[in-house]
Amino acid sequence: MNKKNKIQTSASRKVFQVFNYLLMLGIAFICIYPFWYIIIYTFSEARLADVNPPVFLPRGFSLSNYKDIFELNGFFHSLFISVLRTVVGTFASVLSCSFLGYLFTKEEMPARKLMYRFLILTMYVSGGMIATYIVVKSYGLLNNFWVYILPMLISAYNIVLIKTFVEQLPASLEESAKLDGAGYLTIFTKIILPLSKPIIATVAVFVAVNHWNSWFDNHIYARGNESLTTLQYLLYNYLNEAQRLADQIKNTTNAAGMSQISTSISPKGVRMTITVLASLPIFMVYPFMQKYFVKGIMVGAVKG
Amino acid sequence: MTANRKTAALALHKPKKRYSLLFMVLPFMLIIFLFNYVPIFGWIYSVFDYIPGVPILECDYMGMDYFKMMLKDANVLRSLKNTAIFAVISIALTPLPMFFAIFLNEIKCGPVRKFVQTFTTLPNFISWVIIFSLAFSLFSTDGLLTNAFARLTGTNPSSVLSSKESVYWFQSFLGQWKMLGWNSIIYLAAIAGIDQQQYEAAKVDGAGHFRCAVHVTLPAMMETYVVLFILNIGNFLNTGYEQYMLFKNAVTAPTIEVLDLYVYRIGLENMDYSYGVAISIVKSIVSIALVVLANLVAKKIRGNTVI
Amino acid sequence: MKAKRVLALICTLAMTAGMCTQVTAADATDDLSEHVEITLGGVNVNGSDSNEGWPNEVVQKLEEKFNVTFTVKNYDNESLNLDLSGGTTCDIVQINDDHLEGVLKGKHAVNLEDYKDTLAQNIFSENMTFRNDLMKTYKSNGEGVQYFVTPRVTFEGSKFNYGTTLNNGYVVRWDLYKQIGCPEINNDDDYIAALKAMKEIYPETEDGLPTYAMSAYNDSQLHAYFYKGCLAEGYVNLEGGVYVQNVTTNELVPDLYDVGVEGTTPFWSGVKFYNKLYREGLLDPDCFITKSEDVQEKYNKGQYIGGNVNWYYGTYNENQRAADPETLKEYVTLPEYLGWGNEKNLGGWFGKYFFVSSHSPNVERAVMILDYLQSEEFSRDADSGVEGRWETGADGKVALTEDTIDLKNNGSRVEEWRKSGIGNGILVNICGEDYYNVADDGGMIDLWFEDDMLDDSMTFAEKDMCETMGLTLPSDVLKNKVEAGTSIDLGTCLNAIQMGLATTPKNITRIDSNCEEIAMSAIPNLVQAESDEEFEAAKADLLAQLKDAGAEESVEWWSNAWAEAKTTIEGLNK
């Protein structure tokens, strides 16, 4: 490479860098601003924001959106349940999926393809809600904490991701370990897990967010047990109530019914507050997980 | 006995089968069976006129009526067309998250990269209801962007939300905006998994940044991309309904209604539970057929199956 | 056939979980010694979990009386389907028409007549006879026994008034309407002229935003269009608005597919009205996009001058009053041809059916609670508070106490107000008697509706309106018009006929919802027609599409079903 060429490269590199920074920050901006808008909306005084939505800073300042939510009956208990299911569920699911993902890379497994396809198929078939409900009921899982954990334990999608990742790892590592007499479990914990940190972190983020934000399983399987109410379900009900109050005004054809109803909570404000709460784990977990994303996984390092 | 002999014969070419592996997998397979396969008995509802709450044997037996009805249902045809258009666009756009990840990876300033990486995932958390209300304030006739655009071009403001023609690209754009950052996570993980020695080797060969990206980063991600691509092909008909339901209005209705939205609608408005099940069965079959097909094509091209 | 038998076998194996047992009530007792939990689950009912002040005074009274803990849960379609399929319903359930068949055929409800003379005497009281006959005849799957009760039954001899203000009609901004000299509005054309005049003096809001006459709320399907027409033409709609009932003749009329119908049906009247607005340049250009929330936002910003309903302008009015208590900038509603008042729900509210679940572990207690909810005592409690919140005065008249009135209006006592349970959003939807019924003590069930209570709640703008137009109450415009015979109210409407309709077969339901969908998509062309010819062409096009979708089959079924129901119900009512 002669000198002239090098200068040209670095010049075009600089142009590219500038362009790339602009592009990335531009994309970041169109992603952040709507979210910022949501945040300042939740801190605005409802009355002012309704008339004149905020632009850069909250209109007035009010914590009432959050205060109302914190004051909901059973807020702290449901927060506890949500955290519990997220932690337990993520841990169990990540462990199961990564172990299964690893096992499915083993060609010496009997009926491997068959079982793998059996797993993949679950992504495309479903028996419908009523049948699933009856089945879950017959397992005795209704109103049971494990109904949050077990059905979500194994995710075909996540297993595919992990399997694909593990397959990319140099086979030589495993071979040498095998020669040392290590079993599958040892290889998995000692070699595969440390090397697969990026994908495991990714799957952990997926699963954690999923657990944190799921309310539907609570809604259909654990309605009957208030001590199992998750935060998202509590919020879902709260939002619905705001919505129904708004609708009720519409649907009450009876003249008299209407004067009784006041619009104290606006569905919009509630919805926005819920969005902020829903995105919390990404702020708490993702930056933490990102350290496993740093480049420089040196295969050699694990070897030694 | 035959089975044993067969495995023994295979063992000559392939590594010896390890039955201990089977025992490790089976408990998980059991869970999959219990939670994903047992409920499939619910497909039975498609041949009855099922009324929730009535024991199924007391419901009218319909045979294949619902499946026949589907073929004649003009709404199914129309919504299939829309679904196909949305699906083709979204499949055509599947490389975007991968390229986003590559470009992001080229940002060498750590904090900036992390900042962009974290904050581009945020739209994933914004529900479609809110996206609609944000879109309304930007894109309605009085909306900020509509007006800015009209002033710029000197035309009368007209809203993209009430335009039948713009539905496909506009909805696809919103979908991409919502999911881009989130979907790129997986590719960022793939990049992180690349053995650094490969880059060093490439650099020794005199490769610049660009060539490193093309010759090392891209191929390393292709495997993930292809697998996800094939899984996506299977989701051809599964577009979800929420987005389309919210952006549906009198003007956009003919072009925005997708199959999932139609199924949602018949379940909710007509209480047609059985018809909904029948459609979802057909959808499952189509999905599986598509995945199998894609898998075969992949085998033809690459020599090995993906799934 | 063999296939069917195999299927049957699979089903029996798989469905073991979904079976349900019928409880018979041979010896009903009123044993209250054991404390139990009774839960009421209802479609479109708010849950008591997040209800402020729950259990309030009214509920506490109930709980003590029956030694129970009483909670209310919400059902949506999904969860109700699941609970019915799995036999896991709440003790008392409230459903709508969609689930009647499932409940009846699946035998999920307790026969209330088993408790006729013991635990359910309020349900079977003399005044409820007509309602009970309806339930027995039409909501029993032909068995002729009673499983359901409805809320808010209007009794013979109930009083009525039009309230303080009207809820539906020609909405105007009072300050603007006053400025243009309060022109009399007798029909849509008068109204459009008034809107035009108001827009001329108020072309944009104080913040420089453009103003429009109104928009449609598109998240309620065709409602915005046919409901406007209902008010102008004198109809009430059946759900979805594909069919409407004439208020004076009680005849059923196909609303969308109006081939062969004399006069204008509500849908076409409404669409025509929007078309006129469009041609006058008064209609919001976002008319086809706006949903309730967007409409309300634009009202909040003052961008609309008119409207048909009072659902969306409450916040605007409140905001204006907060800024200036003596403001005239408030929306008020003037009557259209049909005033939505004097509604006689002889069969109770439509589409809300309560039953006691046969899966309840405490059927008898649940029957007692449901019976109590139906009682005069509970209805009065729900609307006016427990005794003591109101009292019988020296003149023998029952009235709310001064303290109670202060409680309602005094913002600093809001906690206490909630605790009192008066007008509680859950309770007012589950009690048995109409607001306007007269209780044994001579007072109305809802004492807030007594005539001498009405003028207490007027705002400054409303008072100004009364002064300017020479009225006592804003709603008097309607009262005067009804007396003059230029307007009608719902007094002649026998809405119970809707309850007597046979269950709609699925193929008809499909046709109807398809027609609704087709009509929805046709609206932009209709409303944006630039000339009468264009409008007629768009109409002909829609009618042809409806015909292809099977509208005639649907009309035939509905006409027959209606004729049958009408004859029998009118018979029952005599």
Automatic annotation (TrEMBL), chain A:
Compartments (UniProt record): Cell membrane
Give a GO cellular-component term: plasma membrane
PROSITE patterns named in the record: ABC_TM1 (PS50928)
Q: Which UniProt keywords apply?
A: Cell membrane, Membrane, Transmembrane, Transmembrane helix, Transport
The record's listing under CDD domains reads:
TM_PBP2
What are the ABC transmembrane type-1 domain coordinates in residue numbering? 79-289
Annotated Pfam families: BPD_transp_1
Which is a GO BP term held by this UniProt record?
transmembrane transport
| TM region(s), chain numbering | 21-43, 79-104, 116-139, 145-166, 187-209, 269-289
Keyword Heme among record annotations: no
Family listed: Belongs to the binding-protein-dependent transport system permease family.
Q: What is this protein called?
A: Carbohydrate ABC transporter membrane protein 2 (CUT1 family)
Task: State the organism named in the record.
Answer: Murimonas intestini
> In the record, what lineage is assigned to the organism producing the protein?
Bacteria, Bacillati, Bacillota, Clostridia, Lachnospirales
TrEMBL record, chain B:
* Primary location group: membrane
**A Pfam family the protein falls into:** BPD_transp_1
All copies of the ABC transmembrane type-1 domain together span 80-294
Which chain regions cross the lipid bilayer? 21-45, 84-104, 125-149, 169-191, 212-237, 273-298
PROSITE patterns from the xrefs?
ABC_TM1
Any GO BP: transmembrane transport
Query: Per UniProt, which keywords does this protein have?
Result: Cell membrane, Membrane, Transmembrane, Transmembrane helix, Transport
Its placement in the membrane is given as: Multi-pass membrane protein
- Give the subcellular location: Cell membrane
Query: Which GO CC annotations does the UniProt entry carry?
Result: plasma membrane
Recorded hits in InterPro entries, A to Z, give:
MetI-like, MetI-like_sf, UgpAE/MalFG_permease
Q: Which SUPFAM superfamilies did the record assign?
A: MetI-like
Source domain of life is Bacteria
Q: Transmembrane helix as a keyword?
A: yes
Q: Which family does it belong to?
A: Belongs to the binding-protein-dependent transport system permease family.
* PANTHER family xrefs: BLL4140 PROTEIN
Q: What is this protein called?
A: Aldouronate transport system permease protein
Automatic annotation (TrEMBL), chain C:
SUPFAM superfamilies, per this entry? Periplasmic binding protein-like II
Secretion signal, residue range per the UniProt entry: 1-25
Q: State the source organism's domain of life.
A: Bacteria
Q: Which UniProt keywords apply?
A: Signal
Report the protein name in the record. ABC-type glycerol-3-phosphate transport system substrate-binding protein
Q: Which organism is it from?
A: Murimonas intestini
